[in-house]
């Protein structure tokens, strides 16, 4: 398995979770009807970003964490993993908040499927964020870091591929043909 695969898995999970969380925030999260003396029966709908105002900021945070994951390394990436885990728990909490109201008795016309789908998408995004955070905490220190190719010569591992040695010699400004 490639060293980069877990990194790109985490990046993909977080980017997808951010998109799904934003989509969920645009769907109907709450719906109610009440009788008003002047207007009669009044239906009130609220999208996710109206009902749970933290949804969009969490989607932006998860997207920003993609950059943090790619730019950090070692123990700092593990700390980023903890932040990702906490964000995932926050998303799951928001998804579960108010789901009991959805499962109760409702008048005709209640969009139960849409409301359940909105909460379900948020829960799915939360699970993806949790999975990414778990990967980061468990294996984040072994994942490659942005710019790792440009580490100091002492930090580089010995190269065993002769073709690659030639290219690295060129990169460092040496003449690979002058070697003995």
Topology (SSEs and partners):
Blueprint: H1 4-25, E1 28-36, E2 40-47, H2 48-51, H3 55-71, H4 74-96, H5 99-103, H6 112-139, H7 162-171
Helix pairs in contact: 1-3, 1-6, 3-4, 4-6
Keywords: Membrane, Transmembrane, Transmembrane helix
Protein name: Membrane protein (TIGR02234 family)
Region (Disordered): 149-180
Give, in spatial order, the strands making up the sheet with the most strands.
Answer: 1-2
For the biggest sheet, the summary is: 2 strands, antiparallel
Evaluate the radius of gyration.
24 Å
Strand content: 5-15%
Give the SSE string: HEEHHHHHH
Number of continuous helical runs: 7
How would you explain this protein's 3D organization?
With 180 residues, this protein is mainly alpha-helical. It has two domains: 143 residues; 31 residues, no CATH class. 61% of the residues lie in helices and 9% in strands. It contains seven helices and two strands; from the N terminus they run H-E-E-H-H-H-H-H-H. A two-stranded antiparallel ribbon has the order 1-2. A hairpin with a 3-residue loop joins strand 1 and strand 2. This is Membrane protein (TIGR02234 family). Keywords: Membrane, Transmembrane, Transmembrane helix.
Q: What are the defining features of this structure?
A:
9% strand, 180 residues, 7 helices, mainly alpha, two-stranded antiparallel ribbon
Quick take:
This protein is mostly helical and 180 residues long. It has seven helices and two strands.
């Amino acid at each position: 398995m490639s060293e980069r695969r877990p990194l790109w898995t985490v990046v993909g999970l977080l980017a997808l979770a951010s998109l799904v969380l934003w989509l969920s925030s645009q769907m109907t999260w709450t719906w109610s009807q009440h009788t008003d003396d002047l207007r009669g029966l009044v239906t009130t709908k609220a999208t996710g970003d109206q009902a749970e105002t933290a949804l969009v900021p969490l989607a932006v945070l998860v997207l920003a964490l993609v950059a943090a994951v790619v730019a950090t390394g070692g123990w700092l990436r593990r700390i980023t993993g903890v932040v990702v885990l906490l964000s995932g728990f926050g998303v799951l909490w928001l998804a579960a908040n108010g789901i009991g109201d959805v499962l109760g008795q409702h008048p005709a016309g209640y969009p139960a499927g849409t409301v359940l789908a909105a909460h379900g998408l948020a829960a799915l995004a939360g699970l993806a964020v949790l999975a990414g955070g778990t990967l980061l905490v468990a294996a984040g220190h072994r994942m490659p870091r942005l710019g790792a190719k440009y580490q100091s010569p002492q930090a580089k591992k010995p190269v065993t591929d002769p073709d690659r040695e030639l290219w690295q010699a060129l990169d460092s400004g040496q003449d690979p043909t002058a070697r003995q």
